[in-house]
């Protein structure tokens, strides 16, 4: 069981920053930048056609776009430029997003209901955090040393636990976007956490299906899916004592990988220490195999599906979903009419072929 | 009311092709290519986590990619190369897709049910058609002459009517993808029709919401949304006697435009002739304004939302949804973690600003 220390500090504009260290050390560096008012949270608007909430964050247009290393806001502060991280080195750092889509609401805020055909605008309560995987500007999650990946995992677990306590948060979403093809604007290895004041459409859908299954069979759906994948074999990429990685039977993307704990848990915080410690090894293997398919760094979205904070915690199981839109070297899968407008996915590659390709990569 | 004649012909491999003409003329050109077996329809697989159907069409990888004019399969056949269209000219042509994701099933086919954790593969019954807007290789839907757009509209209406008769089709989706940014592989102006053997996730969602609204208020939701937009004014782009174009209050994309008939109808086939005839003018204005925002041809997905064939026809209203992922010159909106994995959209531009920008374009 790794020793992980957390140091809580405050940034120049009042945002919180957390240093996660696997060895005890001081974290006293001060963020000396001049105070600046933090932007208001975004707006929440209800799409009446679907009864889904849309966040409108019009201040986000000004974000930095792929800055070079010397201007990277996620590097440690080692020279005259004060970055987001005041210390001169770090292992893993988490801090509140400077221009968050979801942020702490005004006192008295409560989540709105669908009030019919009204033009109402609400505060986008919640929380957005940046998880910096390393103080090295180059690299990626899959290329971190295993010990470093374990520190990231402990940071994810701690943040899930802490953010779940906020009474205006219904769901904690831990994820990583990698590659310019999915809109990444900072190359420094990092992920994000979005904490929403509602249950997102995808999670609401999965929750309804999982709850029905649980009520009917008395077992979590994900547990039975994992049993099927182990039984069918053809879509399994790799497994260890605690985790299994497979291409789902009905994948939506040319490379879509699910990595799930064999023992059902609702979220990262609920993982046993043994399961948490066994994650880096399988995560590294999966990500290296993914990069090995075409011999290039694959753009992907890596999403931790967790049960909502207050509901469905017996039914909806934690799993890590990696989706890549690359279907061949030089060819991306675009979400066109059927996928984008209708939510009906057409896959160009059979999941069994994708799993075979993943297994065939020489590591 | 325009005269539109339809000539039904057969292609070299048995596929149907329809010529739509606004003046009566012969269509006797024969597709003389050597017979070739048509590919089997794709597979349907159930995603157990969401209870949604995924089509697996692994034969689609081989599609032509942006062929030059002299190799374009959607141009008329004027030289030695036999294209998909045998005649030497045409107005509007519709034909069955050569490598369809959904196609006529074997006799006895019926749509499968969710049968629990089974690894079952089903035939992707349905129909995929290509709608060629013009015999000119260059151009776009918005730049067609109004009379030509009217012929396209009549073709869409006729195909919706005809395909709705197929007993294995539950939903007819008429759409256009424009631009390489949304994966278009043929530049020749064209759209597509996908007819699904199930109700797509997005339509199912809209149908549930619209049905609840109808049951509660006795009016279609879309009718009341249009009233709100007319009342609020700020998001309206333009209107005429029969149609209104607006940016929806909770748009998901930097430029998302809804064009809806003022009088509720479930689908294109149900439009009055007057409403159908009034569409080209507003469609052209909207598309020219969209291209005018940045002075470039905007990539977009233009999707006709129609009620399913057999249900919800009092509740779910026809509307044309145009979404563009361009948020600035040189900047695209990517579907990253929140949108792609959670279905929770973050918008960078306020809908009122987008509507203002559309209205401000000088035509």
Task: Please describe what this structure looks like.
The structure is a homodimer of 363-residue chains. By secondary structure, chain A is α+β, with helices and mostly antiparallel strands. Chain A folds into two domains: 5-198, 2-Layer Sandwich (HIT family, subunit A), CATH 3.30.428.10; 202-360, HIT family, subunit A, CATH 3.30.428.10. Chain A contains six helices and 17 strands. In chain A, the strands form three sheets. In chain A, strands 1-2-5-7-9-8-13-14-12-11-10 form an eleven-stranded antiparallel sheet, sandwiched between helices. In chain A, strands 4-3-6 form a three-stranded antiparallel sheet, with no helix packed on it. The longest helix of chain A is centred in the C-terminal third of the chain and has 22 residues, at 273-294. The first copy, chain A, is globular and about 60 Å long. The mean pLDDT of chain A is 93.
Highest CATH level, the class of the largest domain in chain A: Alpha Beta
The CATH H-level homologous superfamily of the largest domain in chain A: HIT-like
Structural class of chain A: alpha+beta
Strand order of the largest sheet of chain A: 1-2-5-7-9-8-13-14-12-11-10
